[in-house]
Amino acid sequence: MLCRGARRSGWSAALLLVAPCLFAQGVPDDAAIKARVAMAVARFAEIPMEQDVAPRPLRLCVAARGQPPRALLELAREKIGANGVEVNPGPVYVACDVLYVHSSFPDWRRLLAEPRAPALTVGDVPGFVAAGGMIELVIDNDSVRFDVNLAALRQQRIRLPSQVLKLARQVRN
To answer: Quick check: pTM over 0.90?
Structure first.
């Protein structure tokens, strides 16, 4: 089984460097910070992929009501290793490596319950992890943190390195 993402050295440096990069262009909004944190976690996720698949961009699907926030669409400029990022703003969410559920998306619980190929689910909706999502982005004391649902990750055979789990605000089994 091949995996998108890899065990890389410098994981903590990469996660810690996210915020200063954002401030280089002025004060970021919550959406921009959440987008960067989501991508930082996705970079280190080991997501099962089909055998014998040529390297391809990471497929990021965004579920939002109307047009997704610009910060999420701008992730298409990012690189993960030598590959880029494809952003799919929906409304069809298939063949995703990462499914980002924005707080504006009204039917997010149904979306989480739909069967799909392994995809890292990230959401900024309160209760996302409790409802079966994998990563919930939360504002905690004026900073963006994340909670992790290990059971949901295991169910999809997705792994996060222990170093990333140590950075989580909360890890649930």
So the answer is: no
